[in-house]
Amino acid sequence: MTFIFRSTLMRNRSFWLPAISAVRTMSSQTGPTPPFSTLSVSRPVNAVTHVELHRPEKRNAMNRAFWSEMVECFNQIALDSECRAVVVSGAGKMFTAGIDLMDIASDVLQPGGDDTARISWNIRRIISKYQETFSVIEKCPKPVVVAVHGACIGGGVDLITACDIRLCTQDAWFQVKEVDIGLAADVGTLQRLPKVIGSRSLVNELALTARKMYSDEAKSCGLVSRVFPDKDAMMAGALELAGEIAGRSPVAVQGTKINLIYSRDHSVAEALDYMATWNMSMLQTDDVMKSAQAAMEKKNPKEVPFSKL
Ligand SMILES: CCC/C=C/C=C/C(=O)SCCNC(=O)CCNC(=O)[C@H](O)C(C)(C)COP(=O)(O)OP(=O)(O)OC[C@H]1O[C@@H](n2cnc3c(N)ncnc32)[C@H](O)[C@@H]1OP(=O)(O)O
Q1: Is 152 in the pocket of ligand 1 (CB under 6 A)?
Q2: How far does residue 61's CA lie from ligand 1's centre (Å)?
Q3: What protein family does this chain belong to (predicted)?
Q4: CA–CA gap between residue 169 and residue 149 (Å, rounded)
Q5: Distance (Å, whole) CA 166 – CA 147
Q6: What CATH number does domain 8-246 carry, 1.20.1050.10, 3.40.50.1820, 3.50.50.60, 3.90.226.10?
Q7: Is 114 annotated in the active site?
Q8: Which of 54, 58, 59 to mutate to test the pocket of ligand 1 (most atoms within 8 A of CB)?
Q9: 151 forms bridges with which residues in the sheet?
């Protein structure tokens, strides 16, 4: 793992810090974490990685660097055996203003190529690359909790729909803004939002009109599972939740994420078949015996020392 974590002091503190004390160490006043220029990456408590979108002066607008840094970051997290859960949030006034409207012209809208076929091929390649920025979150086997405050616009909705658990503050609002900039949203919202929100009609309304959806409606339609009064409370809640996940068997947790996503995209019969194949090896883990013994002894699962995965 090559991240230079800010919170080196935290490493030697006890595994299960109360979330509220850890949240103070999450603030990234000092800027992005090298080699990244748009992300601050830290380890606020053991086994939990915090990824913060960090261009607060530009409202965390997603510039060219961001689109590749997210891929690099989540590919590293996927391989990091010290990390068992992830929290994503935004620095400054809001979660994100979506795609950087200054950069879009120099990348997506200038694909290169000397005839229609080649230009089209290049546009397709660019769109696929942008899609990977959020698909990488879904492909990462570690569960990702996203914490949204203030605005979550355009690409922000693409991002959060690829996460496993969504939390927000009372002042949060969500906007599928793409039609307002002449685009059909093409990096995940149209594909994932209908699987997150039960009402197809509501998804269509949001995507076709670009109207803002506020936190109360986001909660009632199931886009977020919890609403917090302010950002501090939300970050404490996000850390606590991530800590709960990180304390359990990584074999069980990662297998659960992978199979939940598989079952979303397949029939019940196919997903049961996949599950049986998955668990024919994973059930052989020591974690099952360790967890079962802890349950018999009425111990908290977080007290069980699981090997790294
Ligand atoms: C293949 C590609 C697929 C991806 C598609 C994605 C599509 C989308 O994301 S569509 C959504 C695009 N975003 C927007 O339309 C939002 C535009 N911004 C705003 O409406 C406001 O800035 C906002 C409500 C977010 C914040 O308002 P506030 O008053 O708090 O701040 P401002 O003074 O407006 O902005 C502060 C500085 O940030 C810069 N900025 C804000 N948003 C963007 C952006 N999207 N792209 C680039 N820069 C942005 C703004 O210019 C200010 O900069 P400066 O003047 O240098 O201080």
Answers
A1: no
A2: 6
A3: Belongs to the enoyl-CoA hydratase/isomerase family.
A4: 5
A5: 6
A6: 3.90.226.10
A7: no
A8: 59
A9: 173
Starting from the edge strand earliest in sequence, which strands make up the sheet with 85-90, in order? 39-45, 48-53, 85-90, 144-148, 165-169, 226-228
Question: Which tens digits make up the pLDDT trace of 89-139?
Answer: 999 999 999 999 998 877 777 778 889 999 999 999 999 999 999 999 999
- Per-residue pLDDT tens digits for 40-49: 999 999 999 9
CA 97 to centroid of ligand 1, rounded, Å: 5
Count CB neighbours of 168 within 10 A: 28
CATH (residue range 250-303): 1.10.12.10
Residue 96 CA to ligand 1 center (angstroms) comes to 8
Instruction: Please enumerate in sequence order all residues whose Cβ is within 8 A of that of 227, keeping only pairs 6 or more positions apart, or say none.
Output: 167, 168, 169, 170, 172, 215, 216, 218, 219
| Span from the CA of 100 to the centroid of ligand 1 (angstroms) | 7
Per domain, the residue ranges of the chain are: 8-246, 250-303
Name residue 109's amino acid.
L
Best residue among 55, 58, 123 to mutate for probing ligand 1, ranked by most atoms within 8 Å of CB: 58
Asked if residue 102 has its Cβ within 6 Å of ligand 1, the reply is yes
Q: Cα–Cα distances in Å, from 63 out to 42, 72, 75, 103, 276?
A: 21, 15, 19, 6, 42
Stated length of the chain: 309
- The pTM of the full predicted model, rounded to 2 decimals, is 0.93
Mark residue 135 as left, alpha or beta (left: phi above 0; alpha: psi -120 to 50; beta: remaining): alpha
